[in-house]
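Work Package 3 (structural annotation) set out to generate three-dimensional models for the target panel prioritized at the project kickoff. During this period the team completed the workflow that converts sequence records into discrete structure tokens, so that structures can be stored uniformly alongside our sequence database. As a representative example, we reproduce one entry of 332 residues exactly as it appears in the project archive.
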Amino acid sequence: MAPKEFTVNEQHRLSRRGVLKAAGGVTAALALGGAGAVASATAAGAAPGDGSGLRIVDRNEGDPRMKYYRFATSAIGWNPGVNVLLPDDYDSGRTYPVLYLLHGGGGDFIEFDRAGIRDWTAGKPIIVVMPDGGHAGWYSNPVTSNVGPRNWETFHISQLIPWVEANFRVYAEYDGRAVAGFSMGGFGALKYAAKYYGHFASVSTHSGPASLRGFGGLVTHWANASSAAADLAGGTVYGVPWDEARVTADNPMERVPSYRDKRILLVAGTTPEGIWQQVNEVTVLNTQREFRGALDRAGIPYEAHEESGGHEIRPDMFRHDIDGIIDRLRKA
């Protein structure tokens, strides 16, 4: 594995006190990320008998590259959508590595299509799977829900991955899979890569927090408050008081050895503006720095970028990341 590369465009000392002051003592209403929308689709159909537990209730496969599906699943109390972006030469019959790309809070499965994922992957030999994760689902099975099942972790890991591997020509192995995400999705990527060690050979977080307990436990409080407001009608991801075992199981900082032998990319902004940017990206930057320190102490290499700007999708960093993912994974 290549040695750690650390590039810093700007470095600001951003303190926990400054973040809490910017937040005014109020937890953010929505998890890290931006607003979402709903896609249109065409005729529905039935999923093959692939053992995933998913049933297709809506689909659009008319685009030569971007395929859309909506599923009925016992894991989620509504029908989540998924976009599957195929490489330009998918008709060649080759088998491809696959990237699971997770959206931010307040977003949805179309987030990266809006941002430019088709252009970022043009001509590149990789399949990209982009699932719904809830407006503030935090890529978790919540401790409590007042709106029925919202078990995003079960949906992604136990249902979606088997469905993808049964229905597309992907490498169904460690060296064939990567996970990445923006904001809340960046946390989800870090969580999934460690908690399900044998699933993903590459993990990337773009403006995603990397510690649940650090920085005064702000990210855990944030996950609870945002999920209660946006997804669970007062239920919470981690419980009140916290389910400490659940926090430990999901916390990247407490699973550092599980990142060994993986490609790791961390991206954070250094110049956030406005109160919500401060709450989001200051927390991201500080928790990523804490996480990098833990990786350093464990002798685990990584690539880190501190970029000017705030809490935002950076197309140049995603292009760079996709190239790195392709280099790390099994070749098509």
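The chain has a mean pLDDT of 88.
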